Amino acid sequence: MHHFHYLKNELYCEDIPVTEIALAVGTPAYIYSHATLKRHFRAFDSAFEGMKHLTCFSMKSTSNLAILKLFASEGGGVDIVSGGELYRALKAEVEPAKIVFSGVGKKVEDLEYALESDILMFNVESSQEIIKLNEVAKRTGKKARIAVRVNPDVDPKTHPYISTGLKENKFGIDINDAPEQYILAAGLKNIDVTGVSCHIGSQLTQSSPFVDALSKLKGLIRMLEDTGITIRYLDLGGGLGITYDSEDPPLPDEYAGAISKELGTADLTLILEPGRVITGNAGILVTKVLYTKTAREKTFFIVDAAMNDLIRPSLYDSYHAVQPVRKSDRGTVTADMVGPICESGDFFAKEREMDAFEPGDLAAIMSAGAYGFSMSSNYNSRPRACEVIVNRDRFYIIRARETFEDLIRGETSPDCLI
Ligand code: LLP
Predict the structure, then answer these.
(1) Distance 159 CA to ligand 1 centre (A)
(2) Are the C-beta atoms of residues 358 and 1 closer than 8 Å to each other?
(3) For residue 24, how many other CB atoms are within 10 A of its CB?
(4) CA-CA distance, 51 to 94, in Å (whole number)?
(5) How far apart (Å, rounded) are the C-alpha atoms in residues 336 and 345?
(6) Is the CB of 61 within 6 Å of ligand 1?
(7) Alpha-carbon distance 47 to 270, whole Å?
(8) Exposed/middle/buried for 409, CB within 10 Å: 0-12, 13-18, 19+?
(9) With the C-alpha atoms ordered 188, 190, 193, 199, is the resulting torsion angle positive or negative?
(10) Between the CA of residue 262 and those of 47, 298, 400, what are the distances in Å?
(11) How many Cα atoms occupy the beta-carbon half-sphere of 103 within 13 Å?
């Protein structure tokens, strides 16, 4: 359920017509609904109400400070994967004691920064990382709380690029090798073993892979207990999917229910790292049709947003619904909606029946709140879009559109080179 809806053929975000926002801020523009963000965060977090838990929003999905601040004010923590994300989290006033640090290649500087910030836990992914973290902690006079990120070899049944918990993936430590790594870690003076973690993939549309992973992790925790290692935190990662088209993923309540049933009475604090399920359907990308072109029975709608703004269709062939911002009575046509970038992979929809757009019309690319702006780039020297949040009948620019000057910031051209 989200707050983008039609009223008299006009697409609204909460109580404001999207056209009004686009006229004020230009296009392309990301527009998020405050009510939807809040509702999704609460629906997810409250689904785990009966269990000791911490919801650590996965900020790689949507990293704008205003949105992070909103979730922090709801009591949430964050899942980070870089020093830059830690910087953003702290700027957004997320409590360090609610930050977990995942990622297969953490840099020494980032380990130092996170230790200094006294974050809750590092999800470590290799024995070399454990040793490095111990070294850095010793040098800085700290003790690092860790969970070993385990690869449980469970098939999440999702796109191969976003599967992470299979044997062939680069992530985590094979569950069969994990006990050895725990014993290594437990013997290190500046490491405090506190958790087990996993993240098996993204855009999962069934609960069963999560339950299978949890069952394997429980077995590991029992085995560790027998060797005298006590686990307090169980981090199940993120991954719950959303409806982009006709997918029917479990609702947060069903997902939490399945986890609770498998978890039983284990005395552990659950950590969840949801991203997409909270922000995916809370944001849209609004774009303007520049030209229409018909060639050899194909129709193209060329718009002012491109793969640099939203790369998901190009990268994963993902589906995003395309809706008119103002419904017309021109009927529909089968067409491709494409961007101006010099690559054939620059498309939002292919051979799709959609409104018969005309130049100047606005289109909304739906479900763009997660992995939309956060994956955007400056390819083709295109300034990145602005981000706007709507709260009832008001809207706020939460990230200004980049300028041409922004594009060359930091570049220098030494005279001796010419
Ligand atoms: N935790 C970890 C350790 C992760 O690697 C991820 C996502 C999450 C949590 C959050 O997963 P979510 O709840 O959002 O599914 N760019 C891709 C998705 C990549 C996901 C990477 N990891 C896309 O646009 O579909």
Answers:
(1) 12
(2) no
(3) 12
(4) 22
(5) 11
(6) yes
(7) 12
(8) exposed
(9) negative
(10) 15, 52, 45
(11) 20
Q: Are 32 and 285 in contact (CB under 8 A)?
A: no
**56 in helix, strand or coil?**
strand
Rounded distance between C-alpha atoms, residue 390 and residue 24, angstroms: 13
Q: Is 378 helix (H, G, I), strand (E, B) or coil?
A: coil
Tell me the C-alpha distance between 45 and 57, whole Å: 10
Q: Which of 202, 203, 279, 319 to mutate to test the pocket of ligand 1 (most atoms within 8 A of CB)?
A: 202
If DSSP codes are grouped into helix, strand and coil, which group holds residue 148?
strand
Cα–Cα distance measured from residue 65 to residue 87, given in angstroms and rounded to the nearest whole number: 10
Q: Would you tell me how many other CB atoms lie within 10 Å of the CB of residue 124? A: 30
d(CA 275, CA 69) in angstroms, rounded, equals 15
- Whether the Cβ atoms of residue 35 and residue 65 lie closer than 8 Å to each other: no
Q: Which residues are catalytic?
A: 342
Q: What is the pLDDT of residues 388-417, one digit of tens each?
A: 999 999 999 999 999 999 999 999 999 999
Can you state the angle between helices 208-226 and 252-263, rounded to 10 degrees?
30
Q: How many residues are given for the chain?
A: 418
Give 60-116 pLDDT, tens digit per residue.
999 999 999 999 999 999 999 999 999 999 999 999 999 999 999 999 999 999 999
- Asked whether residue 157 carries a pLDDT value surpassing 90, the answer given is no
Q: Which one of 44, 55, 60 would you pick to mutate in the ligand 1 pocket, going by the greatest count of ligand atoms within 8 A of its CB? A: 60
pTM score of the predicted model? 0.97
Query: For residue 70, how far is its CA from the centre of ligand 1 (angstroms)?
Result: 20
Indicate which residue's Cα is closest to atom 16 of ligand 1: 371
Banded pLDDT at 1 (limits 50, 70, 90): confident
Tokens 């939002």: give the residue.
348
Structure tokens at 215: 């069952």
Residues near 109 by beta carbon (within 8 Å), at least 6 away in sequence: 83
Å from CA of 88 to ligand 1 middle = 18
Q: Where are the alpha helices (DSSP H) in 105-251?
A: 108-117, 127-139, 178-186, 208-226
Question: What does the block give as tokens for 368?
Answer: 């763009």
Q: Which two tokens stand for residue 183?
A: 């014993």
Distance CA 356, CA 349 (A): 14
